[in-house]
């Protein structure tokens, strides 16, 4: 049963600075696909830890763009295993902004946010090779 598997609940966290070279829209916003790239990377570490393989992303059942991600942000990206199938693993994702630029205070001014801003959440499925 999936819920009894000790891999359920495993959380992997990546931190990433968003370079200004990734600004894509007005207001230094990055494109939504940038978050999916981050989710793919953190899911890859999940697969390495659960199954000793990088795995393949099969599908997203949900993606919510809740707040903008901007160039200059420091992001915390988490992936939590919610289900372990035979070869599939269900994962919940969250990308939150933990630091942000303060251009009103100076070109390079920035601050640690008291409360992280949840930018993107998603639910997806990765598939790993059959156990040997
Ligand atoms: C995490 C990665 N390292 C980062 C990436 O982003 S990889 C790049 C993007 N992904 C790809 O390029 C993958 C392309 N897709 C594939 O290669 C295949 O479709 C697949 C490997 C994902 C699945 O193919 P296959 O091995 O033939 O699947 P099945 O034998 O039919 O099923 C195996 C289990 O996977 C579940 N499953 C299959 N397709 C999906 C899907 N679209 N959505 C959700 N789940 C899927 C299927 O239910 C089986 O589950 P169980 O083994 O019963 O648990």
UniProtKB/TrEMBL annotation:
Group of enzyme by EC: lyase
Domain HotDog ACOT-type as annotated: residue spans: 8-132
Database matches in Pfam families: 4HBT
GO molecular function ontology, one term from the record: hydrolase activity
Protein's UniProt keywords contain Nucleotide-binding: no
The entry's keywords: Hydrolase, Lyase
InterPro entries xref list: HOTDOG_ACOT, HotDog_dom_sf, Thioestr_dom
Keyword Hydrolase annotated: yes
EC number, UniProt record: 4.3.1.14
Record's protein name: 3-aminobutyryl-CoA ammonia-lyase
Record organism: Micromonospora mirobrigensis
Phylogenetic lineage: Bacteria, Bacillati, Actinomycetota, Actinomycetes, Micromonosporales
């Amino acid at each position: 049963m999936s819920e009894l598997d000790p891999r359920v609940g495993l959380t992997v966290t990546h931190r990433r600075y968003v370079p200004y070279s990734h600004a894509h829209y007005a207001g230094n916003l990055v494109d939504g696909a940038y978050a999916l790239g981050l989710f793919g990377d953190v899911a890859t570490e999940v697969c390495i830890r659960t199954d000793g393989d990088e795995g393949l992303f099969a599908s997203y059942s949900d993606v919510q763009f809740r707040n903008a991600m901007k160039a200059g942000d420091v992001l915390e990206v988490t992936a939590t295993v919610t289900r372990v199938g035979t070869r599939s693993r269900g994962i919940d994702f969250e990308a939150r902004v933990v630091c942000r630029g303060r251009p009103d205070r100076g070109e390079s001014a920035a601050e640690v946010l008291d409360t992280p801003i949840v930018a993107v959440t998603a639910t997806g499925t990765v598939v790993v090779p059959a156990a040997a």
